[in-house]
Amino acid sequence: MVDTDSLYGRRLIPQILDRLAVADPERHVYSITSLSDGIPKFKHITSQAFARAVDRTAWWLHKHLNQMNGASNGDPAQEHDVTVTHKIQALGYIGPHDIRHVLLTYGAVKAGCAALFLSPKNNITGALAVLNASDCSIWVKPREQAMLPLVEGILQEKYMRVLELPSVDELLEAKSTEPFVFNKTFESAINEPFCILHTSGTTGVPKPILWTHGLIGTMDAVRLLPSIEGDGGLTPWTDNWNEGDKIYSSFPMSHGAGVIMDILMPSLFNLHCILGPSGVLPNLGLIESLTGHIDIWSMVPSLVDELGENPEVLAKFESSKFICASGGPVSPVIVSKVNEVVRVLNLTGTTEGLFIGNLWVPREDWHWFAFHPYSGFEFREVQPGVYEHWVHRNEHWALFQGIFYTFPDQDSVNLKDLYIRHPKNPNFWAFSGRSDDVVVLSNGYKISPLDTEALVTTHPAVEGCLMIGTGKPQAGLLIELKDNSEKNNELFDSIWAIVERANNSTFQKTRLQREYIAFSEADKPFIRTDKQTIKRRATLDLYADFIDRFYISRDEEAEDEDFDAFSIDTTSISTVRESVTHVMRSVLPEVDDFPVDEDVFDLGLDSLLVFRVIRIIRAVTGLEEKLAPRHLYAHPTIDEFSVQLLKILEEEKAKKIAVDLLSDTETSKPAETPCSSIKSEKMRKIMADRKRRLGSKMNPFDAVNPNHYMGLNFYFALSPGVSFEEAFAKLQAGLSRAFEIIPELDGKMMLASEHEFGYKKGEYRITIPPHPLPASSKPRQLVYKDLSQVLPSFGEMRQAGFSPSLFSDELVLDCTPFPPMPADILVAQANFVEGGCILAANFIHTCLDAVGVMVAIRAWAECCRYLDGDETATCDWFDAESFNHDLPEIIWEKEGYAKPVHEVDPGTWGFLPFTPDIGVDLRNGTDSHDDIMASEKPRATQNTLPPAPVFPGSSVWPAAPSERSLSTTVFLLSGESIHRLKQETLADPVTNGVSTSVIDIVQAFFWRASIRSRYKVAKEIRNQTFQPNELSILEMPIDGRPYFSSLLPSSYMGSLLVMNRPVMPIETLCSPETNISQIARVIREAAARITPSLVHDTFTLLRSMTDYSKPATANMGLEHMNAMISNMMLFQTSDISFGGSFFEGGSPEAMRPQIERGHRRFRFLVISPMRKDGGVELVLGTLPEELNMLMSDEEFTKYAVLLDHKRA
């Protein structure tokens, strides 16, 4: 891969995407969420589709801006005749929370611009200050969105060119888009903006902050922080952010944390980002619906607080890795409850410097911060026990101190945050406020109190006032009166009039609410200096208990709210709607009209006012916790919310009636004994089918095949006169009948619930539709495609030997090879060409091994014959328990193969795609306490198996793709060549009478040739050397059915594979002194170790594991000297017959595996079924230099002839 450790901190994000789109085009990088009846659905976006959408956005910008002074980043001028200019143009934007924020960010960088994300919380004065300071004269508006009042106000004050950004669907529909080249170096772009945000304006007008590529690079470099003295042995905060993790952020993308979590982290750490739903403000109801789909959460503090107060929702977070809380302080007491269920990562950072030096602290200390010494932080004590946060430039600043990209002329920066020190650990710190008096709410909003306090203090009855609310959901005002005895409604109203003036004069939209104003206590005057100015910190400490009690009272009841003024009339939906409108008017008096179908958040309702609305309705309906803020977030119009409210009220009413009836009703008589007819054969069958359709969990042997589709292409000639539509209809009907016989094929595979008894990570379940398909329905799994105008005729394909270069696997079945869960067990596409059909089918390999796949195909084919009148095609050979994945374990226990794990030869691990350090529970497989105790004892039997081979493996499945892709290459070993190869091999004296089959010889020949080509490339081109003990590992999946038990049906479909792993020193394998016979003997000797006892022991080991999520095979990756062979040499396509009514001859003329999907991830070799002429085809992936080495290998070309080569 290009992105090596040495490049971290020096990568440009658009280039990371472009490389990923080439290396792993099918990787899901974003998913767009929509809700259907509260259930999330996801539209997945691959890296390739996303890269194309970025390019489309870049070209769209270029088209509209090419007359302006926009710098052309990269080099599109050279390849696309784009005029190169020199100024980075800012593009103002406020839009829905959707993927266009991301596309605009990427596209702007490529087109020589920078997206400026303006907070909608600004007022017009603050917004203009940011736009003018950024020299921004272009506004980008989402095409479908009406002009926001804030933007209308801006345009009245400032001339700006307005561009209408296309919809999400238009930007994503970009398959034909020409690439927009971006080839700037990091050095040339280091000080150019990636995007522009702005300060909150808490200390005056907001100011723009340019997030340069250099600043972004410090986020990428966090993983490079070394372990040194002073870090307490703690790891950087990015540790455990793993490739493929799904992340969801509740922050808007006008907030720094939103950009970091939705744009930066997915790119820099290869995460899968979940966005949306657009138009739904993040709330607990939405969060609850996403549980089970998210690994990493990024939440505003107030949402984490709310989660801690909802244990039922919190319990659903156990499967997540952690919650990242940032943007403001959280409640230590409440969030500690969250931390008990799912780990909380508490982060602190700044818009100017991002997250500098944060470290993972021990779980019990989650509320405290720790920082790496390279951060350059100093905590200066400004009063006893309170420390002010400073950062000083050091020699590591370019990689780890991003704030000095924002302030290049400064060597020290006062962050003005105040901290207290941990009582026992001097390097742990907790946030306690701001030295510049800023109030930081729990939702991350920052409010400068000075202007409001100064204005309110002008009231003649006010001695002083302090704004409160740090760490709370709502700002409040604590007022000290000159005469406490004067408290009355008239005084309060006159003070409120001044507060209203303050609300309308500040730069931020966050407003003080009437019920959040309190008067000080007479016996606790504000603490003042000699000059009579209020000592803010000391006074807030004095009133700490009072403030806590004040907020508790506001949360429990509204002391100043006149609930008698409200009611909810449930006579009809219309009366409920009118009642809700009345409540809305009370909290938003400045809004004259409330259209029932308009989003109330667009009208001015914010997260702070939501609490007040819900509190009023709770009080007048008695619904209490049954009505929550999430109901309003999920139904944001008055019409929708009224319907939901009436539904909740009617449900509660129905419950009450049911309880009343129950209390008045006598206990009913016991049910009668079931009649004997329940035991009839018909009823038994119905009950058995119902029970079967409940689905089942996979067994330990199924874990041998990790989650991926096994794909096959079958080539059929169409019978004369049969149309494409007729053939497809027969395939559909046959598949529907096959689903009646094997209903599991109509099912899906899904992850097992971690709440199941005996749950182990990486386990899967099969879920099956509760009822068979209606006669009128067609299988969803089978798709029709007419390729007659795209591909050659079947006759031409036959003449070309059905070569892989005729088409890409993706053309005949576009299906992600590593599907997200749940996933269909079967996916198929019938592709019709002139005179023939290419039936492409994918089966989830975890559910079915190769034998199971052939059973499924054979059953489908036989069902087609039956429907065509073949009365013998009844699938009577198929055992009804063939898809019962419980069978192996039942037989294993019944036949007495269970044994303690410590009695299993450790070399048995060599026959499994796992390593013993994955996690083994010694108690699985033992039967008694004595056995458990015995597991601590050394093995009593002697090890007879060789040690399991060692190889790197991968921490994730699937393994990360390589930068390069292999090309599909096919060689032919003719029947004559095979005979000659066999005779010459058996004549070799080194065979010493060891019996080797022609299959061993062909496998040995293929193993040596494939590795020797890579060996020669390594030595002759890369000057690589190999040690005598460096091994080549050949992996050969072996069917374990013959070894397992005679009780297992021959048609059993689940996985029963073990891995034969012969090994040889690389130098020996590739040496001209080593004969094919020696290699074949190594393969035969390794195969001879596979016995019934060994297969039973592999099941014991698999059963003992606690984590199946990290399979490890030696063929993963491209840069090694290992391989896996799939040998189908003895499989006969004539075993499959769909009948001659629509496929000529009934059987496929050829079958080919879909191997292109693995060309960036695996070294995989295929020996195809023996041809009618007695030859076999050898299929493998090669790099150009490797193919050259193969073609120059005299031993190989003596027997093998190149048939086909399809370039990657």
Automatic annotation (TrEMBL):
Q: What is the lineage of its organism?
A: Eukaryota, Fungi, Dikarya, Ascomycota, Pezizomycotina
Entry keywords, A to Z: NADP, Phosphopantetheine, Phosphoprotein, Transferase
Which Pfam families has this protein been placed in?
AMP-binding, AMP-binding_C_3, PP-binding, Transferase, TRI-like_N
Q: Which Gene3D superfamilies match?
A: ACP-like (1.10.1200.10), Chloramphenicol acetyltransferase-like domain (3.30.559.10), N-terminal domain of ligase-like (3.40.50.12780)
The Carrier domain, residue ranges: 571-649
**Organism expressing this protein natively:** Fusarium anthophilum
Q: Which GO terms describe its molecular function?
A: transferase activity
The name this protein carries in UniProt is Carrier domain-containing protein
Where does the source fall among the domains of life? Answer: Eukaryota
